[in-house]
Design brief:
alpha/beta; Nucleotidyltransferase, domain 5; 5-stranded mixed β-sheet; globular; binds zinc ion
Length: about 350
Amino acid sequence: MQASGLSSATVSNVISDLINDGMVAEAGSVDSDGGRPRTLLRVRSEYGSVVGVDIGETHVQVGLFDCTLNTLDTATYPLGGTELDPDRVVELVTRGITAVTASLGPVSLLGVGVGVPGAVMPDGLVHAPTLNWAGVPLVSMLRSSVAAPVYVDNCARTLGQAEMWRGAGRDASRAVIALLGVGVGAAVATGSDSCRSATSTTAEWGHTVVRVGGAACRCGSHGCLEAYIGAEAILSRYGRPLSASDTESRMAELARLPDRDARRVVEETAEYLGIGIANLVNMLNPDKVVLSGWVSAVLGPVVLPAVRDTVKRHALPYLFAQTEIELGRLGNEEVALGAATLPVLRLLATGGRA
Ligand SMILES: [Zn+2]
């Protein structure tokens, strides 16, 4: 009540509306100092379900979540390098939604959130260099093939939201969520308002320059961070053939290899990642940096001590002292979960009414 700034009568009216709508329920009571016992409330997870879709460079993953964001089901479809055709991606998304919602029964689907590794323009066009998409009308394509309301946003931004709601960013007041995959992005999340964490994308973090006259980047520049810590950059720096066929498995293979060249590539990756994070720390003064994305899941546990050491050497000491660097805690469907925050955010904004 204090956080909302509303009177007790107004809060009571809103709560009884939400209980009548079936969105929240009473969950016992606790004593308050001297006054009437306070009633505890919980969001009813059975109120409805949401779908989150991760359109990544290596797969399309569709997750079904209850409205408190517990995972109910997922469907994952690997993407080959030649399959990033928007029509093919939309077909996989609709197939995944059909698969995960097949057992839903009478529970309503409240909405579908979609995270993309690129920028979503106000007119619904998506620019995603890592997918080779320039001005793809993804929002209208999805809306014409999905029956539920569809919301599309940048996947680093939505992942940042999920990390602030229920991941490593929960207790942070300002967190930077780094998304490490084929592309490299970041989101800045501010947790001062716990139910509506404002996130902003710094998707271009991967294209900040970390080396003069450095490696060519697909953006056309040279020496970009992504040209050193993007998944394909890491694998091509190793240069030797690996036995696994897909990018994610080859990265896992590289992380396990004992040979000196593999160790060197992993150490260099930690050094460049640490420099990229030190720049963020010096510019943004976050109290937490969270490493997420599938490259972080594979390499993170191996490189984290070296990354912290590099940040310590390059960030200003008084800023470094205030910054924790952690691995994400949301697991394999983190990006889909992040996308699922979009319909939940909409639900909160509209007081539970569709
Ligand atoms: Zn670049």
